[in-house]
Write a structure and sequence with these properties.
Blueprint lengths: L2 H16 L7 H22 E3 L3 H4 L20 H7 L13 E3 L4 E4 H13 L4 E4 L2 H12 L3 H8 L3
Parallel strand pairs: 1-2, 3-4
Length: 157
């Protein structure tokens, strides 16, 4: 066998074993995560607003029905989207928010998991938020800015 694979694997295992989230109490950390998530969500909604409402789409992207509507997802011509998007204007500070063409349902992992599975099984696109596995990765990267460099060192990248 190749000894370098054994060394990398041992090094990787050691790194992953040594990594622990900052913070002593996971409940406090979860509360902090929730607060950070709320701040990010508020910032997102202050910067980007869906261009079309429920009346136009036929569904509310933040409160989609259990079964996808017949016209789901709403789609637009590329030329129409590009006419609304000036790549030279990146101002998104209030009150100059950017209206976006958003027709995909947005599901919260904890609240809408079963509905998201229905859409997935019907091969319909959607956005999922607050997935615990993704949030764990976010915490790793937020807790340790050098995380990526350490992983790259483990694999000699």
């Amino acid at each position: 066998g190749d000894d370098s694979n054994t060394i990398v694997s041992a090094s990787s295992r050691r790194f992953l074993k040594e990594w622990t989230p900052k913070g002593k109490n996971m409940e406090i950390m979860s509360s902090q995560d929730a607060q950070i998530l709320k701040q990010k969500e508020d910032r997102y909604h202050s910067l980007y607003r869906p261009k079309f409402d429920e009346k136009t789409l036929g569904y509310d992207i933040y409160n989609c029905p259990p079964q996808p509507p017949e016209n789901y997802p709403m789609a637009w011509k590329t030329s129409e989207v590009l006419l609304n998007w000036n790549p030279n204007d990146v101002t998104t500070m209030a009150p100059n928010y950017r209206e976006v063409y958003q027709g995909l349902c947005v599901f919260d992992y904890e609240k809408h998991y079963e509905i998201a599975l229905t859409y997935r099984n019907l091969e319909k696109p959607f956005v999922i938020r607050n997935d615990p596995k993704v949030m764990a990765v976010v915490r790793k990267w937020d807790d340790d800015p050098e995380y990526l460099h350490k992983v790259r060192e483990c694999y000699n990248l």
